[in-house]
Amino acid sequence: MNLENKKTKSMSLKKLLISILFLFFALSLSRKGIANYPEPPNIGILKQSIRAYIDSGSYQNDLEKVCNLATIYLYENYNKYPNPAAVFDVDETLLSNLEYMYRYDFGYNEESWQEWVIQAKAKAINPVKKLYQLSQKLNISIFIITGRKQIIDKLDEDPTIINLKNQGYYGWKKIFLKPINCKMSTVEFKTNCRKEIESQGYTIIMNVGDQWSDLLGGYSKQIFKLPNPFYYIP
User: Fold this and answer.
1) pLDDT per residue as tens digits for the range 148-174
2) To which H or E segment does residue 155 belong?
3) Which DSSP letter does residue 76 get?
4) All domains of the chain, ordered by start, with CATH?
5) Cα gap 108→118, rounded to integer Å
6) Which residues contact 230 (CB under 8 A, 6 or more apart)?
7) How far does CA 154 lie from the centroid of its chain?
8) Which of 32, 89, 136, 161 could form a disulfide with 93 if both were Cys (CB 3.0 to 4.6 A apart)?
């Protein structure tokens, strides 16, 4: 074997060795769950798509679709159970925080959120408001369960209560605000609230919220999930 052939063979072996090492490395990353993650969507493009979803009217249409289904359900079921009750979430359910989200480009921090809540400026989401009013018309007891915290000792003076009343929400049986030092997850907290409602003799025939954590955990005959492309609460 001449010198040139030896060099060619040596280079081929090196390439083969490099290929094997690269394959081993790729498999190792794959086992660790690294190589299986594709590049996520660009956050700037996502924000633009969310604004387009709202500006096009699609968000409003999707809200109305869910509330129309809930309306049909109420008419068909409101008198089938003893002491019927309906549960509503607050944020992105009864009240819209779009002004806050636009102001901070869909960002969030506890301080700015607290300031926004204190202003009590969130607007009613009209399709849900109509559903709320229909529940009252059908003599369905209304309960509100929210992850918002009570920040004023006297409940009637709390900004969340003021905001709800300013937007035309009245007559609920009880509102549950999350205690400041609560260590429970949202699912646990809201499930326990619904359990308490049913322990008082009510049958929750409808639970309306924008997060799955508003709705999971049982203690309701039917759930209605509103659209929310803005944030996620586990």
Assistant:
1) 999 998 999 999 999 999 999 999 999
2) none
3) H
4) 60-225 (3.40.50.1000)
5) 15
6) 50, 92, 101, 106
7) 28
8) 89
